[in-house]
Amino acid sequence: MTMNMGSIILRSTERFPEKTAIIYEDKRYTYREFNGRMNRVANKLTEMGVKKGDCIAILSFNCPQFLEIYFALAKLGAWAVPLNFRLVGRELAYALNDSASTMLFLGEEFKELVEEIRGELKTVEKFILMEGKLEGDLLDYEELIKSSHDAEPDVPVDEDDIQMLCYTSGTTGFPKGAMLSHGNLIWNSINMNFGWGVTPDDVSVCAAPLFHTGALHCVAFPTFHVGGTTIVFKNFDPVETIQAVQKERVTSMLMLTSMWIMLAELPDLEKYDVSSVRWCLCGGSVLPTNTAEKLGRFFKEGFIAGYGLTEASPGVSMLSPEFFEGRPDSIGKPIPHVDVRIVNDQDQDVAVGEVGEIIVKGRNVFKGYYKKPEANAETLRDGWLYTGDLAKYDDQGFMYFVDRKKDMIKTGGENVYAAEVEYALTSHPKVIEAAVIGVPDPKWVETIKAFVVTKPGEEVTADELIEHCKTIMASFKKPKFIEFMDELPKNPSGKVVKPVLRELSNVDAHPASQT
Fold first, then answer.
1. pTM reported for the whole predicted model
2. What are the CA-CA distances from residue 269 to residues 242, 289, 294, 433 (Å)?
3. At what angle do helices 5-15 and 182-196 cross, to 10 degrees?
4. Distance, C-alpha 464 to centroid of its chain
5. How far apart are CA 235 and CA 284, in angstroms?
6. How far apart, in whole angstroms, are the C-alpha atoms of residue 274 and residue 279?
7. Which top CATH class is 236-404?
8. Rounded to whole angstroms, how far apart are CA atoms 118 and 298?
9. pLDDT per residue as tens digits for the range 166-225
10. Cα–Cα–Cα angle for 286, 290, 296, rounded to 5 degrees
């Protein structure tokens, strides 16, 4: 059997035909049902003219149909283009046109948005409604697969074929399409399962958006790979999620930073039984200090940290539960079958405690950005993926994320890493989130401004936070300006969009008295 993502689903189906593959709301799908439905999708698409290498887009909230379509495309060798449902019309049109997608599967909630951009779409010929009321020339998903058959498609697809064109959540300009092959994604799944010991008895929570490679390739696919069960949530609700953890005896969870924060803030969190959970992982960005410590206590030995990026399919490193206590801010060590170095600007490995750029090598590293040769030349060099992320080692080889290279602040000739200041701010008991940027300064070239979100019902002054920072770090690293916000602007990966903060920034707002 040729190894591709579709064949792996088939193998799990052959091993566990009557086992539950997906739980969604009040429905349960066995592996036999799941595989049969994806085959019906694949065979109908073939009948409709879809060929190997064609791009097919999906715009939907999480649902079983999303997974059926995604893996049906894998069986055909077509490229799946999952779209970020938080994009505005012009951004969606860009991704559809850039990928030359010929077909768009859409959820009921996106009919109006798609109608608005139809005139801008150059290649999409068919629009298939996954559920809901038909309008205009929309095709009905369920009717299409009813008229199909569930025989296994006979299309040769191997590891080097592209499976997914994932448009990275850009913070400036339009996103780039990262080309991920079957082999990239299979090796990422092997790394996840080998590193975390995933078995057919595992039950995972898939609450983050499926267009996000963390949810799709660190939760759903690795679980299907071994024949486990995945609980899919259409939208995230902290109470619904923790209730499902208790009811279904969930063993593994990956959620975005904002989701973990919401869960940690539940007033009655401690009443739930989470003793079944073996590990939890945060995706998107590093958890605020107080939140990480609280969750670490609640989930006992199960809470872990890690690091990844879309271009690595996405797993790179992991901090195992047994090492979490005492270093909750670490991103751990490289996962199996992934090489990691931290290098300076001369590509030399840095010493312990020194800051450098994370570079990654492995069969999980992507094939490059679609139609972006200049970006590829910058990102992929001598077999290494240059991430643009800064980190350092401690004397035991554990890695610590420092900052994005582009977010480093140069003030008075000194380098200040925004993440270090953010760590100090979020260690204050009244602060839940913080983001730090550099702003122009006539004397120091740049100075430091912080945007802070306090816990509900809590109040703290800018001066109090400045004093707190001075007890943790050198005085020149403290913020000069602090602006309080109800929430920080974020992209769908849960990462703060700092260009938005720079646009909003007014250095005269909420200055601290200290200078």
1. 0.86
2. 8, 18, 11, 20
3. 50
4. 34
5. 17
6. 11
7. alpha beta
8. 48
9. 998 654 457 899 999 999 999 999 999 988 889 999 999 999 999 989 999 999 999 999
10. 80
> Which residue matches tokens 């969750």?
295
The answer to whether 288 and 426 have CB atoms below 8 angstroms apart is yes
Q: Looking at this protein, which amino acid is placed at residue 285?
A: S
Domain 30-185: CATH class, spelled out: alpha beta
Q: Which DSSP letter does residue 281 get?
A: E
Mapped to the 3 state alphabet, what secondary structure does 10-39 carry? HHHHHHCCCCEEEEECCEEEEHHHHHHHHH
Residue type, 31: Y
- In the chain, which segments carry CATH 3.30.300.30? 408-504
**What do you get for the CA distance between the two ends of the chain, in Å?**
67
Per-residue pLDDT reduced to its tens digit, 457-497: 999 999 999 999 988 888 888 999 999 999 999 875 567 88
In the chain, what are the helix, strand and coil shares in percent, each to the nearest 5? Answer: 35, 25, 40
408-504: CATH class: alpha beta
Pairing of strands 356-362, 445-454: unpaired
E strands of 299-383, at which residues?
303-308, 315-319, 333-334, 338-343, 356-362, 380-381
Q: What order of strands is seen across the sheet that includes strand 445-454?
A: 431-441, 445-454, 481-484
Q: Per-residue confidence at 509, pLDDT binned at 50, 70, 90?
A: very low
CA distance 328 to 442: 37
Nearest-angstrom CA–CA distance, 208 and 200 = 22
d(CA 64, CA 85) in angstroms, rounded, equals: 16
Q: Say whether the peptide bond before residue 17 is cis (omega within 30 degrees of 0).
A: no
Where along the chain do the CATH 3.40.50.12780 domains lie? 30-185, 236-404
Distance CA 422, CA 498 (A): 13
CA distances to 212, 305, 441, 492 from 284, in Å: 10, 11, 31, 9
- Quote the tokens at residue 343: 């290098």
Q: Nearest Cα to 209, choosing from 87, 52, 316?
A: 87
Query: What is the DSSP-derived secondary structure letter of residue 320?
Result: -
